[in-house]
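Memo to structure team: turn this sequence into structure tokens by end of day. - J.P.
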Amino acid sequence: MNIISTVLLQSPGATSGGTGGSTMSIVMIVAMIAIFYFFMIRPQQKRQKEIQKTREAMKVGDKVVTAGGIHGKIKEISDTSMLIEVAEGVRIRVDKASVFASTSDIQSKS
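Reply from structure team:
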């Protein structure tokens, strides 16, 4: 008989002090929090740090893609935005947070 069926078969008065069930509940809640942290929160934080490092490493002349799917080349970088040339003589200013390195640029570096 495993511990779960033992806990379920016990009557409320059969536990010594009534702390056995509450201890098991606390352990299960802590285990669930640990699972959420290691499988959901931590990988997302790692991904965000990697994206931030990539953005900081961008320089003038790099090919980029915006969150909206616009491809272009960086012409100027300021603290919060980038000036991107999308065609000959056509430049747009976009927020740094919406810019990602071009996949073709990443593949050519490796």
